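Write out the 3D structure for:
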Amino acid sequence: MNQQLAGYAPTPVTARMENHGRTMLKVAMATGQDLYARTGSMVAYEGFIQYEPNPPAVRQIASQWITGEGAPIMKCSGDGLLYLADYGADVLVINLNNDSLSVNGTNVLAFDGHLTWGVERVKGLAKFAGQGLWNVCISGTGWVAITSRGTPIVVDCGRGEDETYVDPDALVAWSPNLKVKGKRSFKASSLIGRGSGEAYQMAFSGQGIVVVQPSEDSTDRLRVRN
């Protein structure tokens, strides 16, 4: 039986964060290298690892999230191997090198504790969605893990002059330096988005990437408010 299951055994550690299969994240924990992770995402660990749900630093930043969704994040510290997952969603591991990433809050799985992060309003969308759209912006040099409901597509917006249009409910993350604006479409309303009579897309332009998942979020992220 052990031979039959050998292919699923833990692999040697090669990086701070790495995939174990498509849907699980393995993090090499060490003293002084704290981690922020989505609350409830721990599925297993080896060694001595402690968890602090909703630490003070997180509460202060989460208070900026005026939509009331909050930021369900816990602080992880200690030595060992930590395994994280989010209901079978695909996991993407990104190593930032003095760079930034804007991520939909529901797609944040984990990131290094020393990275700079905060909740920010997406500019250029308030007229389409009342208070607008809020994302988690993570920057610095370190590791970030995000999730996608299915295998995502990563669009390089710098390859051409055309804008890239994305259904906001399928949006995972993008480069914060991209220009963003909203677009309203009537003719495509029955084919794009939620079919609510009008369709709304986010248009990206400039140099950077956009990560899109093949599944819409469970709630509309961009809608008209009276």
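Residues 56-62 form the longest helix (7 residues).
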